[in-house]
């Protein structure tokens, strides 16, 4: 089985195991996903989902958040950790959306990367979930799992993992594949305990079975 064939097999099995897997950050509008993904750095999505309702209640749109004192944003988001830098980035990002994009999130990868606090992972998440374009989100679950599965070989740098996966994963599958890796990484191929290989849908083709 070639690496490409193995990738397609893994995609299919994860699709069957997690047919409804989607983004675990709650949002109804693109700008809210931008805020949440910034807050999710070194923080759980579950905690972010609990924190953001208070932020949006006080600052309900891009303009309100752009005009908000950074200190007030920080006060609300500090349970997510790194409150000062996250509040600063969110404020600057909303100002840029307001001033340069009419309050809309740009539908262009390079434009997204120019927004304060937005890196490749965040930009790919927006491209895939909001605009339904090809995307590969290399978060910690993705990086851990594709290394264990042998799709990449000892690569830990997110951009390098992303580039390697673009060669293996069909563009239309990338976004959903990464969401399913998150679900699988939380439920089965865990980081802080020994992976539950005995109940893994990939255990017959994964080189790290039991390791």
Structure description:
By secondary structure, this protein is mainly α. The protein folds into two domains: 84 residues, Helix-hairpin-Helix base-excision DNA repair enzymes (C-terminal) (Endonuclease Iii, domain 2, Orthogonal Bundle), CATH 1.10.1670.10; 100 residues, Hypothetical protein, domain 2 (Endonuclease III, domain 1, Orthogonal Bundle). The protein is built from eleven helices and no strands. The longest helix has 19 residues. The chain starts with a helix and ends in a 24-residue tail after the last helix. The model has no long low-confidence stretch (mean pLDDT 96).
Q: Judging by the overall fold, what is the CATH architecture of the largest domain?
A: Orthogonal Bundle
Percent of residues in helices comes to 55-70%
Shape: elongated
Give the structural class.
mainly alpha
Full CATH superfamily name of the largest domain: Hypothetical protein, domain 2
The radius of gyration computed from the alpha-carbon positions, rounded to a whole number of angstroms, is 18 Å
Q: So how many helices?
A: 11
Mean pLDDT: 96
The first-level CATH class of the largest domain is given as Mainly Alpha
Number of strands: 0
Our estimate of the beta-strand percent is: under 5%
Q: Secondary-structure element order, as H and E?
A: HHHHHHHHHHH
Largest sheet: number of strands, sense, barrel closure: none
Q: Looking at CATH, which topology of the largest domain would you report?
A: Endonuclease III, domain 1
């Amino acid at each position: 089985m070639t690496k490409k064939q193995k990738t397609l097999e893994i995609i299919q099995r994860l699709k069957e195991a997690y047919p409804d897997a989607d983004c675990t950050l709650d949002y109804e509008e693109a700008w809210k996903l931008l805020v949440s993904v910034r807050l999710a750095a070194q923080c759980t999505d579950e905690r972010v989902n609990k924190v953001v309702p208070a932020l949006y209640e006080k600052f309900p749109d891009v303009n309100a958040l752009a005009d908000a004192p950074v200190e007030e944003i920080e006060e609300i988001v500090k349970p997510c950790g790194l409150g000062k830098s996250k509040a600063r980035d969110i404020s600057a990002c909303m100002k840029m959306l307001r001033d340069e994009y009419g309050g809309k999130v740009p539908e262009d990868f390079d434009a997204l990367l120019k927004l304060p606090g937005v890196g490749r992972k965040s930009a790919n998440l927006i491209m895939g979930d909001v605009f339904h374009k090809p995307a590969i989100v290399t978060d910690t679950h993705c990086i851990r799992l594709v290394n264990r599965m042998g799709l990449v070989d000892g690569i830990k740098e997110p951009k390098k993992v992303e580039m390697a996966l673009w060669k293996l994963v069909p563009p239309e599958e990338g976004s959903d594949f990464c969401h399913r890796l998150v679900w699988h990484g939380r439920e089965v191929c865990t980081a802080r305990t020994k992976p539950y290989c005995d109940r893994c849908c990939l255990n017959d083709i994964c080189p790290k079975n039991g390791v």
